[in-house]
Amino acid sequence: MAQIFSIYAKFHLTSEIKGQGQILTCNSSVVIGDIVDDNICLTSVTIAESDVMFAINRMKNSFSCRDDLPPMLFKKLKHILVFPLTLLFNQLLSVAAVPQDWRNTVIIPVLKKGFAGSVTNYRPISLTGVISKIMERVISRKITEYLISNSLLSDAQHGFLKGSSTCTNLLECMNDWTLNTDVGCNTVIIYTVSQKKTCHQTYVYIFTKYRPILKILSLSYSVVNLQ
């Protein structure tokens, strides 16, 4: 059984990596609508002690790790560890490298739902070390702050942003649909659904629940399955 999970997880992760496409950099030849100015390009990241302290405080005590250093240890010793961790992270960023041990993860299968005997009903979870997770969260927060402060995120972005969610996305869409109906404009709603069965079932449920509202607003809609 462990070998079956290993083969499935390896295929799943490899497919995702291959599908990510080209990584964009400041010197990339790919043009993104000329919306990014070279003067505001994020060329480096400098980590402060406050950034490390914030990441440590936000860690959950139930966070699973692959080593014998639980998050509670870092929270109890945060005032002692924050300075050496800050030096370590900045040094690693300056040489653009991380320890090889940080790249090793333990992947465990977690049942999403459905029949437990089917491998496709599991999703792989990667367990990494707490120190690497702290650095990852600090850098992620830095990049997010850079994108927001330079207005590089679209107003239509609702996922993975503080204060935004699928709920705010639906509320904004419903408001736009209602305004279009008031002024007599035709509105066509197109939802793209992935080939995963769970996603398709979710959208079928949404359309079944909100079909009366769409009819009241005289809105047409269609579901496109991506194969």
Provide an overview of this structure.
The two termini are 29 Å apart. Helix 2 packs across helix 4 and helix 2 crosses helix 5. The protein is extended, with a radius of gyration of 22 Å. Residues 16-34 have low confidence and may be disordered. Helices cover 47% and strands 11% of the residues. The chain is built from seven helices and four strands; from the N terminus they run ααααββααβαβ. With 227 residues, the chain is mainly alpha-helical. The strands form two sheets. The chain has a two-stranded antiparallel ribbon with strand order 1-2. It folds into two domains: 2-149, no CATH class; 166-225, no CATH class.
Radius of gyration: 22 Å
Number of E-type strands? 4
Treating each run of at least 4 consecutive H or I residues as one helix, how many helices? 7
The H/E string reads: HHHHEEHHEHE
Q: Stretches where pLDDT falls below 50 for ≥5 residues?
A: 16-34
| Helix coverage percent | 40-55%
Please give a handful of descriptors for the protein shown.
227 residues, mainly alpha, 2 domains, two-stranded antiparallel ribbon, two-stranded parallel ribbon, extended
Short account of what is shown:
The protein is mostly helical and 227 residues long. It is built from seven helices and four strands; from the N terminus they run ααααββααβαβ.
Topology (elements, then pairings):
Blueprint: H1 2-18, H2 49-57, H3 71-76, H4 78-95, E1 106-111, E2 122-127, H5 130-149, H6 166-182, E3 188-193, H7 197-216, E4 220-225
Parallel strand pairs: 3-4
Antiparallel strand pairs: 1-2
Helix pairs in contact: 2-4, 2-5
